[in-house]
Amino acid sequence: MKHSVSYPLTLSQFQASEGFWKDKMELVRKEVIPYQWDMLNDRVEGAAPSYCMRNYKTAGKYIRENKVEDSFSNNLEGMYRGFQVLPKDPENLEDTFYGFVFQDSDFSKWIEAVAYSLSNHPDAELEKIADEAIDVVCAAQLENGYLDTYFIINGMSGHFQNLTDLHELYCFGHLAEGAVAYYHATGKDKLLKAAMRYADYIGQCFGPEEGKRKGYPGHEEAEMALVRMYEATGDEKYLNLSRFFVDERGKKPYYWDSEPSCHGFRFWAKRDENDEGYQYHQAHRPVREQDEAVGHAVRAMYLYSGMADVARLTDDETLREACRKLWRSTVREKMYITGAIGSTHVGEAFSFPFDLPNDTAYAETCASVGLIFFARRMLQMEADSEYADIMEKALYNTVLGGMALDGKSFFYVNPLEVLPQASRKDARKAHVLPVRPKWFGCACCPPNIARLISSLPMYAYTENEDTLFMHLHMAGKVSKQVGDKTALFQVNSNMPWHGKVDICYCGRESTDMTLAVRIPGWCEKWQAEGIEKFDQRIEKGYCYLTGTWTEGTNISFCFEMVPRFYQADERVREDIGKVALMKGPVVYCAEEADNGKNLHLLQVIPEGEIREEWSDILGITLPVLSIQGERKTPASTLNTLYTPYEKNTYEATEVKMIPYFAWANRGENEMTVWLRQK
Amino acid sequence: MKHSVSYPLTLSQFQASEGFWKDKMELVRKEVIPYQWDMLNDRVEGAAPSYCMRNYKTAGKYIRENKVEDSFSNNLEGMYRGFQVLPKDPENLEDTFYGFVFQDSDFSKWIEAVAYSLSNHPDAELEKIADEAIDVVCAAQLENGYLDTYFIINGMSGHFQNLTDLHELYCFGHLAEGAVAYYHATGKDKLLKAAMRYADYIGQCFGPEEGKRKGYPGHEEAEMALVRMYEATGDEKYLNLSRFFVDERGKKPYYWDSEPSCHGFRFWAKRDENDEGYQYHQAHRPVREQDEAVGHAVRAMYLYSGMADVARLTDDETLREACRKLWRSTVREKMYITGAIGSTHVGEAFSFPFDLPNDTAYAETCASVGLIFFARRMLQMEADSEYADIMEKALYNTVLGGMALDGKSFFYVNPLEVLPQASRKDARKAHVLPVRPKWFGCACCPPNIARLISSLPMYAYTENEDTLFMHLHMAGKVSKQVGDKTALFQVNSNMPWHGKVDICYCGRESTDMTLAVRIPGWCEKWQAEGIEKFDQRIEKGYCYLTGTWTEGTNISFCFEMVPRFYQADERVREDIGKVALMKGPVVYCAEEADNGKNLHLLQVIPEGEIREEWSDILGITLPVLSIQGERKTPASTLNTLYTPYEKNTYEATEVKMIPYFAWANRGENEMTVWLRQK
């Protein structure tokens, strides 16, 4: 086991080649990051203000002017509206806190994306903006290290009093992640030091020692973040605090029940006959006793990711086994074919096993981002390609689909079937938007896409002492330290459109090491060339090539990538009698723009021929697949809804399918992933 | 046109024969009415108290003791929880109002059912209980005629201040309906006089005259009820007040917007870009401009019924045309095959056209009761069998299905597909109960079933001067006054199980008259015997037989009744590729009890043979149909949710189908009406 533990590359070890992912990273750099900065500063016309940077400035002013009060008071009416404080008069803002209680984290996710972007593409101007923003944020930190504008502004007696709902430890986590990333990218440690001081304060309040509180986050995130701090600083107290949070979770009696809960409400805590209260927060049982993915999907993924981190670093087998069970529950019972998870909007949560409705799906972008976090951490523990397969699936489908092709609008919810009039007229589908909006008041998804895409090499490759793991075949130059030598590979691939991967060793120095190349799960046949001189071993979906790598060594893998129809497990009621189409890791869908209205009248012939043709959508050239299908012959207009059965007749038609991630880029229209099979 | 206007029989004109409907009426008499009475008096263990009779007694006490206050105050917190005031300490009730604001109407619906039951089956003991209850209710009436315990107890300044939400005119309407029915049944007019005094008070407050308010009910019901008062008393002022309510509805600016709205909230009023606010209440436009059935389905049916009454009695062609449009919208675009309407639980409302999901259906029992009200009123205006077809469909399927076979439990929601674990675990389907509960806090459906079934002859037959219309072929003795002679028919039928209807004229006196027999829409072939001597005319689905009827005249109709598969309009997305099974007016369904779990794995062969066999469910013998189908061969257990497509294999199986109305009588289990067709 132990030998396969691995760590992500640092971004400086990778330089992306021109092509698919470079384009996406550039989109994030050029479009998303500047737009986000405008959003954080309430400068986007027509968008609801974020108040994020404003809150930091207000908190800084309170500190400067000694106005921080102890006694907590806030606008309860505002709170009731989903953890949000809205101004009474938006034209006349007061010196107070506005927006969601977790608004601070918007800055943190932005700075994290900025950090990755600076690693990939240095930019003095952007770095200056970031440094100034960091100054604003650090000026909002209290002497004792506490840093959360909601309580600094509203009164400190409220802080850490309602961990269940009020997101302080979540915000801390994002701050820490952003701080570590910015430190790695720039070497500047101002924000990291602030995060460490805050972490130290948290460690004074919470911990196993007598007199400290036994609390843990209501929205998980600090667990992962503390591990990153540990890995960045080497200071074990951060790892210990993370493990403490993981270990305390779900113990009974619930710590949360003993909280003064200063706001007098609990949003999601529900007890049922099986005493499975706090399922929403994954705190219904100690984590080692959990075996089903439940509750708020993003929270779940963040917790499981933190658990996997702790399990790996503490070599904790029971925790590792819990991670495996939760993984299996997630991906074998509760995941859409697009790698989306969390099928109900009620609580943005998991539903019961195999309940995966396509048209009411919640399938939050952030939940799939979280699934990718979890997958990579499982991969780090054990190089099993199942984890990478799912990581790739979530990435190419739900996460990419969460952003428009031009990077200017975003989905929070990623349905697999859309009828625009239903979204407009049926309150049960009001969350299913047929077109991406510019931004969201609760702006978790766009920044999460931004930070994931700009740090993608950390998911595409991991390494340990002597092995470089290639999970996603991402094209670019990869370097790796092997003892005192530097290995260097040039990887050429046109993923996700072609299955050919060329790998050239272009390091000046020869190295003795192993390259472990993932054999994708979607590939039924593959071959490799030039690998004869290496020791070869296939294990858990990876091809391990061990030997001496010298300059000019060329190897190549050819993974057969043919469009193929898929069926769902028969327990997925909504997909019975239907098929979906994939090419490699990319899920396809049918849109009204290509196939006319009433997609439900189509059925496809899974044995039929599939024709591939490159075509333009919003200026991006993509492989479009044409499949053989049939359209129901229109019934003669009748005046009654129900008529005696007559054999339905169908007319042959070609159904045009586009990559799912490219849907909803041509205005509002119907879309479906699953089509009835003939 | 005018010649076909007709009126329901009075119950004394009909005496049911032993058999299907007699059994149901007896069930209501023996089970439902006594149980309801216990409920109204909070004597049912385990059931949430109704507080209905208690409120009347409390109000009476306030009046006796001169404690009725002007200044209104109530428990706003309670109100917020869905119009309901719950006691702080259920063990120590105070002298105040409890329950839903519309709780008074529970008595009224009960007394209406009692009245019909007494007509069908005199019962001195029940009549005594009813008389005493009426005394309690009448003691709660104010001197000025006002009678609503919620405001009498909480303070009269609140009365008629929030017509939109607070159901006063709805409660009045039910009181009036109950009063008219009790008067017809017993000749006793105490309650009728109370209702008239209340109506007179309402007429002083609202009306076209200067100085009177231009309001109308937030929940329609008074419209129908005032017409019944007019028909019972002959006093046109009641008809005029009904017409006033109909005419004012939806005029802009909205009367409701000018209300002081003493409670500071509006539950359902929503304005959208098309200024279609108040759709929930069908008050978004003047009724003559409405052409789509929208909003709360029960409210809609009650309004349309009132509109049809007014149109008929005032010979108002524009109003009649609006009724026709709303009828067509309801039954041709928004009705399930079971005659259920209102497909979304959000607002218990209509969704957009052809949006008829089976598994999340709301399909409230009361809405189908309302559809039957509407249908009979349309029939009264024009004898077109389309109306009777729908009336029959709603009756035999949704309404009957709303009550258990033993009359002891009830559905509020009538889905067409149920997976019990979804109801338990998926909040989106929490309203879809897999087993009938004993009663409901908001107890509208059980009493509505009771009053409909016990007055069924008023729907089965209507008459005008010279014609008796037989809509539902209900078996029994029917008498009809023709001039100074009494016609008498003995109708024998085994509807809904056999298509043979024997009609024997058994009046001593010969009469010259017309018998109009409906040719059911589900019947493709029919023949009649013994009708040669009459003038025969087929018009809009009725066979008119005109001539002299003499004792011993025997005629018979044979309506072919074969089990038949049906398909839905292709615009109903949820039913595409599926079929349903009907025998005559009865819709069938497949249950887990007969077919095992995972009904979605079944598909049926619509061309296959159908086998009929009588079988017992809960002691009731019903025709069970066995159809030819196939069950998907279990897939080999796989560890992944999505696998490359392989041709599915199926094994032949017989699928056992039972009448939909008999579902959920054998414990919790899966059920579906629509099955995939091969």
Question: How are the secondary structure elements laid out?
Answer:
The structure is a homodimer of 678-residue chains.
Chain A: E1 7-8, E2 14-16, H1 20-40, H2 52-64, H3 76-80, E3 84-85, E4 99-100, H4 104-120, H5 124-138, H6 149-154, H7 168-186, H8 190-205, H9 222-233, H10 236-248, H11 255-258, H12 297-314, H13 317-333, H14 365-381, H15 385-401, E5 417-418, H16 420-425, H17 445-454, H18 457-460, E6 461-463, E7 467-470, E8 476-482, E9 485-493, E10 500-505, E11 511-518, E12 526-529, E13 535-539, E14 542-549, E15 554-559, E16 563-568, E17 578-583, E18 586-591, H19 592-595, E19 602-604, E20 610-617, E21 620-632, E22 642-644, E23 650-659, E24 671-672, E25 675-677
Parallel strand pairs in A: 7-11, 19-25
Antiparallel strand pairs in A: 1-6, 2-8, 3-4, 5-24, 6-7, 8-9, 9-10, 10-15, 11-14, 12-15, 13-14, 16-17, 17-18, 17-25, 18-23, 18-24, 19-21, 20-21, 21-23
Helix pairs in contact in A: 1-4, 1-17, 2-4, 2-5, 4-7, 4-17, 7-8, 7-9, 9-10, 9-12, 10-12, 12-13, 12-14, 14-15
Figure out the total of helices of chain A: 19
Largest sheet of chain A: 6 strands, mixed
Strand content of chain A: 15-25%
Oligomer: homodimer
Give a concise summary:
2 copies of one chain form a homodimer. Chain A is of the alpha+beta class and 678 residues long.
